Amino acid sequence: MQRIEDADILEFIALGGGNEVGRSCHIIKYKGKTVMLDAGVHPAMNGLAALPFYDDYDLSTVDVLLISHFHLDHAASLPYVMTRTEFKGRVFMTHPTKAIYRWLLSDYVRVSAISNDASALYTDADLSLSYERIETVDYHSTTDIDGIKFTAYHAGHVLGAAMYFIEIGGVKLLFTGDYSREEDRHLNVAEVPTERPDILITESTYGTSTHQPRQEKETRLLNLITKTILNGGRCLLPVFSLGNAQELLLILDEYWQSHPDLEGIPVFYASSLARKCLAVYQTYINMMNDSIRKKFRDDRSNPFQFKHIRSLKSLERFADLGPCVMVASPGMLQSGVSRELLERWAPDSKNTLIITGYSVEGTLAKQILNEPSEFPSITGGGIKVPRRLYVEEISFAAHVDYKQNSEFIDLVNASNIILVHGEQTTMGRLKAALQSKYKELRNTQKEVKIFNPRNSEELRLPFRGIKLAKVMGSLAARPPENGAILSGIIVQKNFEMSILAAEDLSEFSGLGTTAVIQRQTVAVNASAELIKFHLEQMFGAVQVVLEAEQTVAYEVMGIVTVHIGAGMATIEWEGNMMNDLIADSVLAILISVDSSPMSVKLSSKPHSHATEIPLSRLEKIDRVLLFLDSQFGEHVTPFSDNANDGVEITVDAHVARIDFRTMEVACSYEPLRSRVRHVLDRAVDTVLPFVAGNEGSPAEVEDFVEDVAKIDMEGVKDVDPLTEGQVVVKTEPDTVGEEVVTMMDAVG
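User: That's the sequence. What structure does it adopt?
Assistant: Structure tokens below.
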């Protein structure tokens, strides 16, 4: 089993919205990148208690914060994060969400300040500062922030609501936020992304519950309203200022339009905030469904310019003289116009309260569904308000039920599902239902794992991403062939790798290339021809690129240029790993050329250097081994118990064998054999004479003299034996009349 590194672990932490509805905030960390999803408050709490558990995480490490939609439980703590914490990342939301965000949170700041100054999380100035830093994204447009890719898709919950498809280091996630798969009068349904994610983070608001069909809900709602007003009662519909409020207003306006007998019954919309934001709805009609766009296009009218809905600026202007329908915020009945009207109308049994959205635990909207005989007044002081009005729940909340959620999960086909945004019991039932549904896939490659982490509980999921490199530019013009070697430069930006030719770097990666020309000068005490001779011994053919009266220049392997003149040699090459190795070899030759045994020493008169070196055969083998060790190091090993018999050199599974008795090199791999042969020849030349046993016999010297005489060396005059194992080579007089004499060792 391969070990999973820490960098291959994806971490998920719910700072809010884990086994609860409210203060949604989730953290994703992978490969050193951190994404925060939403930053809401809890509707049933006030002040710091309403915040997600920000103290449990270092917000300074967050790179990107994505807001799914404008509802308070998903966005209301964003100004706090941006102005009161160490958060330094970038914030993104859709255009409609940003347009409504400013108005919605201004109202939240105002209400917080009125209710309790100490509970205010931030000021209007903080809100303005945060607003300026928010960036917007378009649906279906992919944004890349330092390796974090994300794409917004329609979520269908409210105008501007987005699901985010996120990719980090090859791991793909889909965060649904609040979403709806049921088409209503103005919103698109939630989309299914074209790509399959590895992880699905989905809401579980309604758990295993199933919604009533939409047409039946509308019929129930309108019949109940009609019955109430015909009995002389009043209908109160508490709503969020934005979201299902607009949907209910469209339903009511259409119903009143088709029922002239209701013309005298007023329908009020009590929300100053919603009046301001209706302009946003009128602006972004192009982001709504086909039904709204068709009415706008064909009828040349804006559906949000209601004909039968009256706007109520304040309750002070409300006469409250007879039957009416009141759509008022907030939806949780915690405060505001809806709470004031509830306390005013609750004692009358002719009146009706219709809960039209999801009710969060701990709010009055949730408590009153149990039809208590009384409830506490907002004025406090232990005052109780009797409840005699009729209470009914007809939810138009744009959340998926179990059937819609389950079908969407199947379409997305993720192997890991993380449940968020649901009360503990409701979420537990959904998890159990999904586990039962996918139980046949357990312990298979298609296994679906389901998680429901609590707040501040870290979930660690292992992923081993596949590293892929795209071949681009001129290299991609040639079709790939089996066994072909592709040579190029690997360029990595964040988590993406490309293979490019050097000339394509600028066009495809924005990188440039720079050639570093290196130059080094050393003193030499040898002629240009002698230097050329040694270079040819090492590198083969050497090209003459300049031949002037005072200067000669050679080019070695088309890479290193050697300039020789006035007792100095300068080498010049373009710096890179391979060229540097060749330049080092050339420099080594230049440094040792005047002391090499193969060099011809210039002299003013005939002379010899007949110095006999009393070396035994074992000592000479030791010196040859020094050469081999310096070139091949630990790859040199004896091939028998006696190292003097020979050695083996092993490189990349290829073996070259040197027999010191015959000085032969045996190897099936020609590049290695040639390299070893060359090094061995150099070693033998340096430690001459090298014979098996004592110094060369007279007969061996005579044979060597004959061999030397056969050498085609221009200007050789004579070859004579000098001492045992040594000969003298004489050349013709040079241009100044001096005869050149050298001593050479005989090789057995």
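The first helix runs from residue 72 to 75.
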